[in-house]
Every structure is written in C-alpha cells, then in structure tokens.
C-alpha cells in the first residue's frame, strides 16, 4: 500500500552515500501557498505568465498528476518535511483550524504543531553535512503568542529561519511586513522578491558546501498583493480576453512574483556555477482558492473534498537524473518528495518509517512505483466546502467517503476529471473494494475519526458556517 524505508540510526560518518557527484548535490524545495495546478502556463493557463517555471518544466519533469497531501496548508507542510501522511501525524487541518462546535460531527483532538520526535528533511540534510535554511512561511506552530519560538524552524533542523512563524498569511506583501522573524525592508519592497533575495544570500554564503534550501512562499495566499505596474498589465490583458475564467489581475501579479523569484534563484545558481549540481523541486500545498482563481477542469478548489482541492503543480529538475521536458502521468503525492530528494542526493534516511515512495527510479529510468493507491484524510469542516471526508485514488478511480451521512462517491478520472458523474451506484463492487482499502489504510495509520456531536444544532451551525465563510473571504 505504501513503501516503508528502514534504516538504523547510524553515526554521522556512516550517513553519507552520495551517488556519482564528486560534490554532494544541493537541494532547493519551493512550496507555493494555494497555487492550483492550472495556475501555471505550463499546465494550461492562458492568463497567468510563468516563463521561468515553464523553463523549469522544460528542463526537468512535469507531473500531470501531482497531488498535495491535504486540501489545506499545514498538513501538507508537515507531510513534506516528514514524508508521512497527515493522518499518521494526526496533523490534519490548517493551524489552528475552523471552529464548528455545533456541527453534526465532532472533530478529533488533533495535533497542532509539528511533532519534535519527527525527523525532518532539514535534520536529515543537516546530519549529512548540509547547510539548511527555511525562508518564508512556516505555519507549523500552535498559536500566535509569546513563546512560539520553541516551535520555529530552528527547532527542526534549520540553521536559518527567515520569515517563518505562527501566522499562515502575510500581514502585507509590501514592506513594512510586520513579520517578527523578517527584518523590515525599505518601504514598498515586495515580499516575494525579498524571499528570493534572502534565498540568494543563503546560497552565496554556502556556495562552498552542500545546502538544503526550503522556500515556502507566502504567495499566492490572500490577502492578495502585487506590483502596481504588473497589476495594470494584467488588467489590460483581462480586458482583451473577457472570456477567460482566470482573470484576477492582482492574483496574476502575485503568481508572476513567484515566477520571478524562481528566475532570480536559477540565475544565481548559474552565476555561481551551481546549477548543474542543484536539485530543484517546485510544488504547492493545496489547490487554488475559489473564486480568486479557477481550477478548471478540476472540481472546486482549496478546502474541498474534490480534485480541485489537491491537484497541484509538481516539477522536479535533477541534473543528470531527470529527462528534460518529460511529462509524467504517474500520480505523485507530497509525501513522496521526502524519500525522493534524499535518494537523489545520496543521503541515507535516518528514520525507520516514511509513507512516501521515492520517485528517483521513475525519474532516472522510468521505473514505475510499486504502489496501488494514494490516500487523503480530512476529518474537519472548511469554508471551502469540505465536510469530514477521506479519499483514495486507485488507478484512474477516486473514491470519496463523507462522514456526515456515510455516503461514498466514485469517479473515473480518466474519463471524468471534473468529477461530474458519481459512479458509486453504477459500480457498487468497485466502490466497495475501494472503500475496504480506504478503511484498512485509515486503521493502518491510526487515523483520528470524527464522532457524533452531542451538541449538534443545525441552526446554530449554519450561522457559524456563514461567519467562517465571511471571515475566510476577508
């Protein structure tokens, strides 16, 4: 069902098993916030302009079936850093989540920070002699209050933390930022540009040794922001193309800022002659936010139980390992990035269990992963439309189980990627088989399940749901 990597805890001298490179490869992992798969021109957008990201796709591998580990951000971030399903970590919602005390179901008492016992990617690379940095959003801290420093990236293997703290969205994309872990820039400086500049500074400081750079952008999360001249350019473009579903000029400017950031970083790597020894991964933490963007042909978006909530861009460029311009159809999940970058870098895993599988054999030789299904578990409510659900994709079929009424929905993604036709009643045997596999997986990872709420009040809950939706839109 999933691959487990076993490795004893070894002394540092025995950890390094770098492949063929004379110098261990550098690793850059870029995680965008709330970017849907179709928010990039290399994935079909006719409105957003992303030439640098498109070039990364041409230079490396683009996954057509890239998935985030969750429909919201914090669980996916934890999954990326640990290689484990959010359900196993019991970290299954964005921190601190939405309150629905009068809903039909009571959500479990879930984990609200990254557990210290987990061995993160940063700790793996640090033990292997790498310099490590987290630049950008963290959002794996229990609350916005004094003392949260005990949960910051520095406590999870990162030598450097620039911009990461409890909050999941920036107070402003223009300086002054009011982010406690980011020294203020000159008035008007743009946050995504600043993150790129800090990344280049880190790369320059560590050009003589291997480094692991984790760049979790605050963009493209709300509140939307962009440079006035870029916004104006997209406004003019939208006026000329009125029939496009994607047409938010400010959001387009924010997407472009992420693209500019990648261009800045790749230019620095080339200038320092590090580009041919640097692995780059580009992905997102969940699907695009509706109605800010449009995720067509995928159904709905962030915070939903459907494909639009978890379909994300996934690009991997590993010089000497990946075939330029390859489009890979194999489903790949956030948890796979952990074992993948470790294997590509030749770093032997320290921990005994991960849920992800290494995509390195697929990238190097086309060897398909030995995995039948991938899973999701979200025992929460979300203004994006999700009620507590779990889901499984097996082959081209995706089954979603909803806990409020116990129903199952089944979709054939090969012929209905928009999930418009529920096949559960037409193919009951398949639905039953997938539900059985889903239940077995939930048990295997000790997933926390929602329970009947003794305080259920449909009227009060409806009012609370409206309040949460309004707050989310602000």
Any overview of this molecule?
The protein is an alpha/beta fold and 474 residues long. The chain has a single domain, classed as Alkaline Phosphatase, subunit A. Helix content is 28%, strand content 15%. It contains 12 helices and 16 strands. The strands form 4 sheets. It has an 8-stranded mixed sheet with strand order 6-5-7-1-8-9-2-10, with helices on both faces. Strands 12-13-14-15 form a 4-stranded antiparallel sheet, covered by helices on one side. It has a two-stranded parallel ribbon with strand order 3-11. β14 and β15 form a beta hairpin. The longest helix is centred in the middle third of the chain and has 23 residues, at 249-271. It is globular. The two termini are 41 Å apart. Mean pLDDT is 93; it is low at 1-21.
Report how far the terminal alpha carbons are from each other: 41 Å
CATH superfamily: Alkaline Phosphatase, subunit A
What is the N-to-C order of secondary-structure elements (H for helix, E for strand)? Answer: EHEEHHEHEEHEHHEHEEEHHEEEEHEH
Give, in spatial order, the strands making up the sheet with the most strands.
Answer: 6-5-7-1-8-9-2-10
Highest CATH level, the class? Alpha Beta
Which residues sit in consecutive blocks of at least 5 with pLDDT less than 50?
1-21
**Radius of gyration, Cα only, in angstroms?**
21 Å
Structural class of the secondary structure composition?
alpha/beta
| CATH topology (level 3) name | Alkaline Phosphatase, subunit A
Number of helices: 12
Major beta-sheet overview: 8 strands, mixed
Q: Quick check: average pLDDT?
A: 93
Number of domains: 1
| CATH 2nd-level architecture | 3-Layer(aba) Sandwich
Query: How would you sum up the global shape?
Result: globular
Helical content class: 25-40%
- Strand portion, in percent? 5-15%
């Amino acid at each position: 069902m999933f691959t487990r990597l076993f490795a004893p805890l070894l002394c540092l001298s025995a950890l390094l098993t770098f492949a063929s490179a004379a110098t261990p490869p550098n690793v850059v992992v870029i995680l965008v916030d709330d970017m849907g798969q179709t928010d990039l021109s290399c994935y079909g957008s006719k409105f957003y302009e992303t030439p640098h990201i498109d070039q990364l796709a041409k230079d490396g591998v683009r996954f057509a079936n890239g998935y985030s580990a969750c429909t919201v951000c914090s669980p996916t971030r934890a999954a990326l850093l640990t290689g484990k399903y959010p359900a196993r970590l019991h970290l299954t919602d964005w921190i601190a989540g939405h309150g629905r005390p009068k809903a039909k179901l009571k959500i479990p008492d879930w984990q609200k920070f990254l557990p210290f016992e987990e061995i993160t990617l940063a700790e793996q690379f640090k033990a292997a002699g790498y310099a490590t940095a987290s630049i950008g959003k963290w959002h794996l801290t229990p609350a916005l209050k004094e003392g949260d420093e005990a949960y910051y990236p520095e406590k999870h293997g990162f030598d450097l933390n620039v911009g990461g703290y409890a909050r999941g969205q920036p107070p402003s994309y223009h300086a002054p930022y009011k982010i406690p872990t980011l020294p203020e820039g000159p008035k008007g400086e743009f946050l995504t540009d600043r993150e790129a500049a800090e990344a280049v500074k880190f790369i320059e400081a560590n050009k003589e040794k291997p480094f692991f750079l984790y760049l979790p952008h605050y963009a493209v999360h709300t509140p939307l922001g962009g440079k006035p001249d870029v916004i104006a350019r997209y406004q003019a473009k939208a006026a000329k193309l009125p029939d496009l579903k994607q047409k938010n000029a400010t959001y387009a400017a924010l997407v472009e800022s992420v693209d500019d950031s990648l261009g800045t970083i790749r230019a620095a790597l080339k200038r320092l002659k590090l580009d041919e020894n640097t692995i780059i991964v580009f992905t997102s933490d969940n699907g695009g936010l509706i109605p800010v963007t449009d995720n067509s042909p995928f159904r709905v978006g962030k915070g939903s139980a459907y494909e639009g909530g978890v379909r994300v861009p996934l690009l991997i460029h590993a010089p000497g390992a990946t075939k330029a311009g390859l489009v890979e159809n194999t489903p790949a999940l956030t948890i796979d990035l952990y074992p993948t970058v470790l294997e590509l870098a030749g770093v032997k895993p320290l921990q005994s269990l991960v849920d992800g599988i290494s995509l390195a054999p697929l990238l190097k030789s086309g060897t398909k992963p030995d995995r039948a299904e991938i899973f999701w578990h979200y025992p929460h409510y979300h203004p994006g439309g999700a009620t507590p659900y779990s889901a499984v994709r097996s082959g081209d079929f995706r089954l979603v189980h909803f806990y409020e009424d116990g129903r199952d929905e089944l979709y054939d993604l090969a012929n209905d990627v928009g999930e418009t036709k529920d096949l559960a009643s037409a193919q009951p045997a398949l639905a039953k088989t997938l539900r059985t596999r889903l239940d077995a997986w939930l048990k295997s990872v000790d997933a926390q399940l929602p329970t009947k709420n003794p305080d259920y009040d449909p009227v009060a809950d409806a009012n609370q749901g409206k309040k949460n939706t309004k707050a989310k839109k602000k």
